[in-house]
Design brief:
This protein folds into 2 domains: 220 residues, Spore Coat Polysaccharide Biosynthesis Protein SpsA, Chain A (Alpha-Beta Complex); 194 residues, UDP N-Acetylglucosamine Acyltransferase, domain 1 (3 Solenoid), CATH 2.160.10.10. The chain contains 9 helices and 41 strands. The strands form 7 sheets. An 11-stranded parallel β-sheet has the order 12-15-18-21-24-27-30-33-36-39-41, with no helix packed on it. Strand 2 and strand 3 form a beta hairpin. The longest helix has 21 residues.
Amino acid sequence: MADNAVILAAGYGKRMKTDIPKVLCEVLETPMIRWVLNACEAAGVENIYVVKGYGAEMLDEYLGGKYETVMQKERLGTGHAVMQAMELLKKDPDGNTLVLCGDAPFMDKETISAALEAHRSQGNAVTVVTAELDEPFGYGRIVRSENGISAIVEEKDATAEQKKIKEVSSSCYWFSTKALCDVLPEITANNAQGEYYLTDCVELILKKGLRASAYIADDPKVVMGANDRRALLELNEIARRDVIGKHLDNGVEFVCTDGIIISPEVSIGQGTKILPGVILRGKTFIGSNCVIGPNCIIEDTAVGNGVVLNNVQAYQSVVLDNAKIGPFVQLRPGTHIDEGVKIGDFVEIKNSTIGKKTAISHLTYVGDSEVGENVNMGGGCVTCNYDGERKFKTVIGNNAFIGCNTNLVAPVTIGEGAYTAAGSTITSDVPSGALAIERGRTTIKQDYAVKKLKARTDKFKNSQ
Protein backbone atom coordinates (compact mmCIF):
# COMPACT_ATOMS: atom_id res chain seq x y z
CA MET A 1 0.00 0.00 0.00
CA ALA A 2 1.76 3.13 -1.26
CA ASP A 3 0.99 6.81 -1.15
CA ASN A 4 0.95 8.83 -4.35
CA ALA A 5 1.30 12.45 -5.34
CA VAL A 6 -0.26 13.96 -8.46
CA ILE A 7 1.31 17.32 -9.25
CA LEU A 8 -0.72 19.54 -11.59
CA ALA A 9 1.76 21.15 -13.99
CA ALA A 10 -0.11 21.53 -17.29
CA GLY A 11 -0.86 25.24 -17.01
CA TYR A 12 0.12 27.74 -19.66
CA GLY A 13 0.42 30.74 -17.36
CA LYS A 14 -0.68 33.25 -19.99
CA ARG A 15 -0.48 36.18 -17.59
CA MET A 16 3.16 35.33 -16.88
CA LYS A 17 3.90 36.28 -20.51
CA THR A 18 6.49 33.56 -20.90
CA ASP A 19 7.18 30.80 -23.41
CA ILE A 20 7.93 28.21 -20.74
CA PRO A 21 5.44 26.23 -18.60
CA LYS A 22 4.37 28.29 -15.61
CA VAL A 23 5.70 25.70 -13.15
CA LEU A 24 9.23 26.29 -14.51
CA CYS A 25 9.13 29.96 -13.52
CA GLU A 26 11.62 30.38 -10.70
CA VAL A 27 11.51 31.32 -7.05
CA LEU A 28 15.02 31.89 -5.69
CA GLU A 29 16.67 30.54 -8.85
CA THR A 30 14.65 27.31 -8.46
CA PRO A 31 11.63 26.32 -10.63
CA MET A 32 8.42 26.31 -8.61
CA ILE A 33 7.81 22.65 -9.41
CA ARG A 34 11.16 21.73 -7.85
CA TRP A 35 9.99 23.21 -4.53
CA VAL A 36 6.86 21.02 -4.75
CA LEU A 37 8.80 17.90 -5.76
CA ASN A 38 11.24 18.39 -2.90
CA ALA A 39 8.40 18.77 -0.40
CA CYS A 40 6.74 15.55 -1.60
CA GLU A 41 9.99 13.61 -1.49
CA ALA A 42 10.91 14.97 1.95
CA ALA A 43 7.47 13.91 3.22
CA GLY A 44 8.17 10.36 2.04
CA VAL A 45 5.59 10.12 -0.77
CA GLU A 46 6.52 6.97 -2.70
CA ASN A 47 5.04 7.58 -6.17
CA ILE A 48 5.11 11.02 -7.76
CA TYR A 49 3.18 11.63 -10.99
CA VAL A 50 3.34 14.90 -12.94
CA VAL A 51 0.48 16.05 -15.18
CA LYS A 52 1.99 17.99 -18.07
CA GLY A 53 0.45 20.02 -20.87
CA TYR A 54 1.77 23.25 -22.34
CA GLY A 55 5.51 23.05 -22.96
CA ALA A 56 5.58 19.33 -22.19
CA GLU A 57 8.94 18.87 -23.92
CA MET A 58 10.56 21.54 -21.76
CA LEU A 59 9.09 20.04 -18.62
CA ASP A 60 10.25 16.53 -19.63
CA GLU A 61 13.76 17.86 -20.18
CA TYR A 62 13.79 19.49 -16.76
CA LEU A 63 12.45 16.40 -14.98
CA GLY A 64 15.04 14.25 -16.72
CA GLY A 65 12.95 11.08 -16.68
CA LYS A 66 13.03 10.82 -12.90
CA TYR A 67 9.25 11.09 -12.52
CA GLU A 68 6.39 9.41 -14.37
CA THR A 69 4.35 11.92 -16.36
CA VAL A 70 0.93 11.95 -18.02
CA MET A 71 -0.31 14.29 -20.72
CA GLN A 72 -3.33 16.59 -20.43
CA LYS A 73 -3.87 17.45 -24.09
CA GLU A 74 -6.80 19.78 -23.37
CA ARG A 75 -6.81 22.01 -20.30
CA LEU A 76 -10.33 21.33 -19.04
CA GLY A 77 -9.88 21.98 -15.33
CA THR A 78 -8.21 20.46 -12.30
CA GLY A 79 -10.51 17.45 -12.17
CA HIS A 80 -9.77 16.68 -15.81
CA ALA A 81 -6.04 16.91 -15.06
CA VAL A 82 -6.26 14.31 -12.30
CA MET A 83 -8.33 12.05 -14.59
CA GLN A 84 -5.25 11.69 -16.79
CA ALA A 85 -3.46 9.93 -13.93
CA MET A 86 -6.29 7.54 -13.02
CA GLU A 87 -4.76 4.46 -14.64
CA LEU A 88 -1.59 4.98 -12.62
CA LEU A 89 -3.55 5.48 -9.40
CA LYS A 90 -5.59 2.30 -9.95
CA LYS A 91 -2.40 0.24 -9.71
CA ASP A 92 -2.49 0.65 -5.92
CA PRO A 93 -6.01 1.71 -4.83
CA ASP A 94 -5.51 0.90 -1.16
CA GLY A 95 -3.23 3.84 -0.37
CA ASN A 96 -3.75 7.61 -0.38
CA THR A 97 -3.18 10.21 -3.07
CA LEU A 98 -1.96 13.75 -2.60
CA VAL A 99 -3.10 16.22 -5.26
CA LEU A 100 -1.35 19.56 -5.33
CA CYS A 101 -0.37 22.39 -7.65
CA GLY A 102 3.05 22.65 -9.23
CA ASP A 103 3.01 26.43 -8.92
CA ALA A 104 2.54 26.57 -5.11
CA PRO A 105 6.18 26.55 -3.95
CA PHE A 106 5.52 27.10 -0.24
CA MET A 107 3.71 23.81 0.32
CA ASP A 108 6.14 22.08 2.70
CA LYS A 109 6.86 18.60 3.99
CA GLU A 110 5.59 19.45 7.49
CA THR A 111 2.16 20.39 6.16
CA ILE A 112 1.97 17.38 3.82
CA SER A 113 2.95 14.95 6.58
CA ALA A 114 0.69 16.45 9.25
CA ALA A 115 -2.29 16.54 6.87
CA LEU A 116 -1.74 12.87 5.99
CA GLU A 117 -1.59 11.94 9.65
CA ALA A 118 -4.91 13.75 10.26
CA HIS A 119 -6.37 12.14 7.13
CA ARG A 120 -5.53 8.64 8.37
CA SER A 121 -6.42 9.13 12.04
CA GLN A 122 -9.84 10.63 11.23
CA GLY A 123 -10.68 8.00 8.62
CA ASN A 124 -11.28 10.64 5.95
CA ALA A 125 -11.98 9.94 2.31
CA VAL A 126 -10.65 13.42 1.55
CA THR A 127 -8.74 15.94 3.64
CA VAL A 128 -8.40 19.46 2.26
CA VAL A 129 -5.30 21.42 3.31
CA THR A 130 -6.48 24.88 4.32
CA ALA A 131 -5.15 28.10 5.81
CA GLU A 132 -6.65 30.99 7.72
CA LEU A 133 -6.14 34.37 6.04
CA ASP A 134 -6.97 37.85 7.28
CA GLU A 135 -7.67 38.81 3.66
CA PRO A 136 -9.30 35.74 2.06
CA PHE A 137 -10.56 37.49 -1.09
CA GLY A 138 -10.20 35.37 -4.20
CA TYR A 139 -9.83 32.03 -2.43
CA GLY A 140 -12.34 29.20 -2.13
CA ARG A 141 -13.96 29.25 1.35
CA ILE A 142 -14.20 26.18 3.57
CA VAL A 143 -17.70 25.59 4.89
CA ARG A 144 -17.46 23.33 7.95
CA SER A 145 -20.02 20.95 9.40
CA GLU A 146 -20.21 19.09 12.70
CA ASN A 147 -18.42 16.08 11.18
CA GLY A 148 -15.86 17.87 9.01
CA ILE A 149 -16.55 20.06 5.98
CA SER A 150 -19.70 20.35 3.90
CA ALA A 151 -18.44 22.32 0.91
CA ILE A 152 -15.73 24.40 -0.74
CA VAL A 153 -17.32 27.57 -2.14
CA GLU A 154 -15.50 29.65 -4.73
CA GLU A 155 -15.34 33.44 -4.27
CA LYS A 156 -17.69 34.15 -7.18
CA ASP A 157 -20.28 31.71 -5.83
CA ALA A 158 -20.07 32.63 -2.14
CA THR A 159 -22.85 34.37 -0.26
CA ALA A 160 -22.15 37.50 1.74
CA GLU A 161 -22.02 35.39 4.90
CA GLN A 162 -19.69 32.82 3.34
CA LYS A 163 -17.32 35.55 2.19
CA LYS A 164 -16.67 36.36 5.86
CA ILE A 165 -15.09 32.92 6.32
CA LYS A 166 -11.31 33.23 6.72
CA GLU A 167 -10.46 29.55 6.24
CA VAL A 168 -9.57 28.99 2.59
CA SER A 169 -8.58 26.08 0.38
CA SER A 170 -4.96 25.62 -0.65
CA SER A 171 -5.99 23.46 -3.65
CA CYS A 172 -4.02 20.67 -1.99
CA TYR A 173 -5.86 17.47 -1.00
CA TRP A 174 -5.22 14.07 0.48
CA PHE A 175 -7.67 11.55 -0.98
CA SER A 176 -8.28 7.90 -0.31
CA THR A 177 -7.07 6.62 -3.68
CA LYS A 178 -10.08 4.32 -4.04
CA ALA A 179 -12.56 7.10 -3.20
CA LEU A 180 -10.86 9.45 -5.66
CA CYS A 181 -10.96 6.90 -8.48
CA ASP A 182 -14.63 6.17 -7.71
CA VAL A 183 -15.84 9.79 -7.94
CA LEU A 184 -13.59 11.21 -10.67
CA PRO A 185 -15.67 9.69 -13.51
CA GLU A 186 -18.79 11.23 -11.97
CA ILE A 187 -17.77 14.89 -12.06
CA THR A 188 -19.25 16.96 -14.87
CA ALA A 189 -18.44 20.20 -16.68
CA ASN A 190 -21.84 21.77 -16.08
CA ASN A 191 -20.53 25.24 -15.27
CA ALA A 192 -19.86 28.54 -17.01
CA GLN A 193 -16.25 27.60 -17.77
CA GLY A 194 -17.10 24.15 -19.11
CA GLU A 195 -14.40 22.62 -16.91
CA TYR A 196 -14.15 19.63 -14.57
CA TYR A 197 -13.43 20.89 -11.06
CA LEU A 198 -11.58 18.76 -8.54
CA THR A 199 -13.55 20.49 -5.79
CA ASP A 200 -16.65 18.66 -7.05
CA CYS A 201 -15.07 15.43 -5.82
CA VAL A 202 -15.55 16.64 -2.25
CA GLU A 203 -19.30 17.03 -2.76
CA LEU A 204 -19.56 13.61 -4.44
CA ILE A 205 -17.60 11.97 -1.61
CA LEU A 206 -19.98 13.49 0.93
CA LYS A 207 -23.00 12.24 -1.03
CA LYS A 208 -21.62 8.71 -0.77
CA GLY A 209 -21.68 9.04 3.01
CA LEU A 210 -17.90 9.22 3.33
CA ARG A 211 -16.06 11.65 5.55
CA ALA A 212 -14.49 14.90 4.30
CA SER A 213 -12.48 17.14 6.58
CA ALA A 214 -9.84 19.87 6.50
CA TYR A 215 -6.40 20.32 7.99
CA ILE A 216 -5.42 23.92 8.82
CA ALA A 217 -1.76 24.51 7.97
CA ASP A 218 0.40 26.24 10.57
CA ASP A 219 1.94 28.44 7.86
CA PRO A 220 -0.67 30.30 5.77
CA LYS A 221 1.87 30.86 3.00
CA VAL A 222 1.18 27.31 1.74
CA VAL A 223 -1.84 28.64 -0.19
CA MET A 224 0.24 31.17 -2.14
CA GLY A 225 0.86 30.77 -5.85
CA ALA A 226 1.68 33.05 -8.75
CA ASN A 227 -0.40 33.86 -11.84
CA ASP A 228 1.62 36.85 -13.07
CA ARG A 229 5.05 38.43 -12.76
CA ARG A 230 4.05 40.70 -9.87
CA ALA A 231 2.89 37.73 -7.81
CA LEU A 232 6.04 35.80 -8.76
CA LEU A 233 8.19 38.70 -7.53
CA GLU A 234 6.25 38.70 -4.26
CA LEU A 235 6.92 34.97 -3.83
CA ASN A 236 10.60 35.58 -4.46
CA GLU A 237 10.79 38.34 -1.86
CA ILE A 238 8.97 36.27 0.75
CA ALA A 239 11.11 33.21 0.06
CA ARG A 240 14.33 35.24 0.06
CA ARG A 241 13.59 36.70 3.49
CA ASP A 242 12.56 33.32 4.88
CA VAL A 243 15.68 31.53 3.64
CA ILE A 244 18.02 34.24 4.89
CA GLY A 245 16.19 34.17 8.22
CA LYS A 246 16.77 30.42 8.50
CA HIS A 247 20.50 30.88 7.95
CA LEU A 248 20.64 33.74 10.45
CA ASP A 249 19.11 31.43 13.03
CA ASN A 250 21.85 28.89 12.21
CA GLY A 251 24.68 31.34 12.88
CA VAL A 252 25.41 32.67 9.39
CA GLU A 253 26.41 36.35 9.19
CA PHE A 254 24.93 38.86 6.74
CA VAL A 255 26.25 42.41 6.94
CA CYS A 256 23.75 43.49 4.27
CA THR A 257 21.28 41.41 2.26
CA ASP A 258 21.37 43.48 -0.94
CA GLY A 259 21.43 41.24 -4.00
CA ILE A 260 21.70 38.03 -1.98
CA ILE A 261 19.73 35.07 -3.38
CA ILE A 262 20.02 31.65 -1.73
CA SER A 263 18.20 28.61 -3.11
CA PRO A 264 16.23 26.56 -0.56
CA GLU A 265 18.49 23.48 -0.84
CA VAL A 266 21.69 25.38 0.04
CA SER A 267 23.46 24.51 3.31
CA ILE A 268 25.75 27.04 5.06
CA GLY A 269 27.91 26.40 8.13
CA GLN A 270 28.04 28.41 11.33
CA GLY A 271 30.27 31.49 11.37
CA THR A 272 30.30 31.98 7.59
CA LYS A 273 29.86 35.53 6.32
CA ILE A 274 27.80 36.14 3.16
CA LEU A 275 28.52 39.51 1.51
CA PRO A 276 26.27 41.49 -0.87
CA GLY A 277 25.66 40.29 -4.41
CA VAL A 278 26.04 36.58 -3.65
CA ILE A 279 23.87 34.01 -5.49
CA LEU A 280 23.93 30.44 -4.14
CA ARG A 281 22.12 27.93 -6.35
CA GLY A 282 21.12 24.28 -6.35
CA LYS A 283 22.56 21.81 -3.88
CA THR A 284 25.46 24.00 -2.82
CA PHE A 285 27.21 23.34 0.49
CA ILE A 286 29.24 26.05 2.23
CA GLY A 287 31.29 25.10 5.29
CA SER A 288 31.95 27.02 8.50
CA ASN A 289 33.87 30.27 8.97
CA CYS A 290 34.04 31.14 5.28
CA VAL A 291 33.78 34.55 3.61
CA ILE A 292 31.68 34.36 0.45
CA GLY A 293 31.53 37.46 -1.71
CA PRO A 294 31.00 40.06 -2.70
CA ASN A 295 29.46 39.17 -6.05
CA CYS A 296 29.83 35.39 -6.21
CA ILE A 297 27.72 32.84 -8.07
CA ILE A 298 28.09 29.35 -6.58
CA GLU A 299 26.06 26.52 -8.14
CA ASP A 300 25.94 22.84 -7.12
CA THR A 301 29.34 23.23 -5.49
CA ALA A 302 30.81 21.98 -2.20
CA VAL A 303 32.94 24.49 -0.29
CA GLY A 304 34.95 23.50 2.79
CA ASN A 305 35.70 25.40 5.99
CA GLY A 306 37.63 28.67 6.19
CA VAL A 307 37.38 29.35 2.46
CA VAL A 308 37.49 32.89 1.05
CA LEU A 309 35.76 33.49 -2.30
CA ASN A 310 35.83 37.00 -3.78
CA ASN A 311 34.03 37.64 -7.07
CA VAL A 312 34.07 33.93 -7.94
CA GLN A 313 31.78 31.94 -10.20
CA ALA A 314 31.85 28.21 -9.41
CA TYR A 315 29.79 25.49 -11.06
CA GLN A 316 29.67 21.79 -10.08
CA SER A 317 33.01 22.02 -8.37
CA VAL A 318 34.68 21.20 -5.04
CA VAL A 319 36.73 23.66 -2.97
CA LEU A 320 38.39 22.25 0.15
CA ASP A 321 39.37 23.94 3.42
CA ASN A 322 41.24 27.25 3.66
CA ALA A 323 41.42 27.93 -0.06
CA LYS A 324 41.57 31.60 -1.04
CA ILE A 325 40.19 32.38 -4.49
CA GLY A 326 39.61 35.60 -6.42
CA PRO A 327 38.81 38.16 -7.49
CA PHE A 328 37.35 37.41 -10.93
CA VAL A 329 37.85 33.65 -11.02
CA GLN A 330 35.71 31.05 -12.78
CA LEU A 331 35.63 27.41 -11.68
CA ARG A 332 33.92 25.39 -14.38
CA PRO A 333 32.37 21.94 -13.90
CA GLY A 334 34.66 19.15 -12.74
CA THR A 335 37.09 21.40 -10.88
CA HIS A 336 38.55 20.14 -7.57
CA ILE A 337 40.51 22.64 -5.45
CA ASP A 338 42.46 21.07 -2.57
CA GLU A 339 43.27 22.54 0.84
CA GLY A 340 45.17 25.81 1.14
CA VAL A 341 45.18 26.61 -2.59
CA LYS A 342 45.54 30.27 -3.58
CA ILE A 343 44.12 31.47 -6.87
CA GLY A 344 44.52 35.09 -7.96
CA ASP A 345 42.64 37.36 -10.32
CA PHE A 346 41.39 36.49 -13.80
CA VAL A 347 41.95 32.73 -13.60
CA GLU A 348 39.74 30.08 -15.22
CA ILE A 349 39.90 26.41 -14.22
CA LYS A 350 37.95 23.64 -15.92
CA ASN A 351 37.74 19.91 -15.24
CA SER A 352 40.99 19.95 -13.29
CA THR A 353 42.45 18.97 -9.92
CA ILE A 354 44.60 21.51 -8.10
CA GLY A 355 46.76 20.03 -5.30
CA LYS A 356 47.33 21.29 -1.75
CA LYS A 357 48.91 24.71 -1.26
CA THR A 358 49.37 25.30 -4.97
CA ALA A 359 49.37 28.95 -6.09
CA ILE A 360 47.95 30.07 -9.43
CA SER A 361 48.70 33.75 -9.62
CA HIS A 362 46.64 35.50 -12.28
CA LEU A 363 45.65 35.67 -15.94
CA THR A 364 45.90 31.88 -16.25
CA TYR A 365 43.81 29.09 -17.82
CA VAL A 366 44.00 25.52 -16.52
CA GLY A 367 41.86 22.97 -18.37
CA ASP A 368 41.72 19.16 -18.26
CA SER A 369 44.73 19.09 -15.97
CA GLU A 370 46.14 17.39 -12.91
CA VAL A 371 48.21 19.87 -10.91
CA GLY A 372 50.16 18.57 -7.93
CA GLU A 373 50.88 20.02 -4.48
CA ASN A 374 52.86 23.20 -3.76
CA VAL A 375 53.05 24.10 -7.44
CA ASN A 376 53.57 27.73 -8.45
CA MET A 377 52.04 28.91 -11.72
CA GLY A 378 53.09 32.40 -12.77
CA GLY A 379 50.91 34.95 -14.52
CA GLY A 380 49.71 34.37 -18.04
CA CYS A 381 50.09 30.57 -18.15
CA VAL A 382 47.88 28.47 -20.41
CA THR A 383 47.28 24.76 -20.69
CA CYS A 384 46.65 24.27 -24.40
CA ASN A 385 44.23 21.37 -24.03
CA TYR A 386 42.27 21.49 -27.29
CA ASP A 387 43.52 20.96 -30.85
CA GLY A 388 40.21 21.82 -32.48
CA GLU A 389 38.93 18.25 -32.39
CA ARG A 390 39.98 16.57 -29.13
CA LYS A 391 40.85 17.47 -25.54
CA PHE A 392 44.20 16.41 -24.02
CA LYS A 393 45.51 16.26 -20.46
CA THR A 394 48.30 18.17 -18.75
CA VAL A 395 50.01 16.73 -15.66
CA ILE A 396 52.16 18.89 -13.37
CA GLY A 397 54.06 17.18 -10.57
CA ASN A 398 54.47 18.33 -6.95
CA ASN A 399 56.65 21.38 -6.26
CA ALA A 400 56.95 22.32 -9.94
CA PHE A 401 57.42 25.95 -10.96
CA ILE A 402 55.68 27.14 -14.12
CA GLY A 403 57.19 30.44 -15.26
CA CYS A 404 55.13 33.41 -16.42
CA ASN A 405 53.55 33.16 -19.87
CA THR A 406 54.27 29.45 -20.25
CA ASN A 407 52.13 27.55 -22.74
CA LEU A 408 51.80 23.85 -21.91
CA VAL A 409 50.75 22.08 -25.11
CA ALA A 410 48.88 18.94 -24.03
CA PRO A 411 49.34 16.06 -23.77
CA VAL A 412 52.36 16.96 -21.68
CA THR A 413 53.79 16.06 -18.24
CA ILE A 414 55.90 18.35 -16.09
CA GLY A 415 57.86 16.28 -13.58
CA GLU A 416 58.15 16.86 -9.83
CA GLY A 417 60.19 19.92 -8.93
CA ALA A 418 60.70 20.83 -12.60
CA TYR A 419 60.85 24.43 -13.84
CA THR A 420 59.71 26.03 -17.06
CA ALA A 421 61.33 29.26 -18.16
CA ALA A 422 59.13 32.32 -18.59
CA GLY A 423 57.75 32.71 -22.08
CA SER A 424 58.27 29.07 -23.06
CA THR A 425 55.91 26.97 -25.15
CA ILE A 426 56.41 23.45 -23.82
CA THR A 427 55.58 20.72 -26.35
CA SER A 428 57.30 17.70 -24.76
CA ASP A 429 57.54 16.14 -21.30
CA VAL A 430 59.91 17.72 -18.77
CA PRO A 431 61.81 15.37 -16.42
CA SER A 432 61.64 15.84 -12.65
CA GLY A 433 64.08 18.44 -11.39
CA ALA A 434 64.86 19.80 -14.87
CA LEU A 435 64.54 23.29 -16.37
CA ALA A 436 62.73 23.52 -19.70
CA ILE A 437 63.39 26.44 -22.03
CA GLU A 438 61.48 26.35 -25.29
CA ARG A 439 61.49 29.76 -26.93
CA GLY A 440 63.06 31.55 -29.86
CA ARG A 441 66.54 33.13 -29.55
CA THR A 442 66.50 36.92 -29.29
CA THR A 443 67.68 38.76 -32.42
CA ILE A 444 68.58 42.48 -32.26
CA LYS A 445 68.34 44.69 -35.37
CA GLN A 446 70.00 48.01 -34.63
CA ASP A 447 68.14 51.22 -35.62
CA TYR A 448 65.15 49.23 -36.98
CA ALA A 449 62.75 50.87 -34.54
CA VAL A 450 64.13 54.36 -35.24
CA LYS A 451 63.31 54.04 -38.93
CA LYS A 452 59.83 52.67 -38.21
CA LEU A 453 59.12 55.44 -35.72
CA LYS A 454 60.21 58.16 -38.19
CA ALA A 455 57.90 56.74 -40.87
CA ARG A 456 54.98 56.76 -38.44
CA THR A 457 55.59 60.30 -37.20
CA ASP A 458 55.99 61.63 -40.75
CA LYS A 459 52.72 60.05 -41.76
CA PHE A 460 51.02 61.59 -38.72
CA LYS A 461 52.37 65.10 -39.51
CA ASN A 462 51.22 64.89 -43.15
CA SER A 463 47.72 64.02 -42.03
CA GLN A 464 47.34 67.23 -40.00
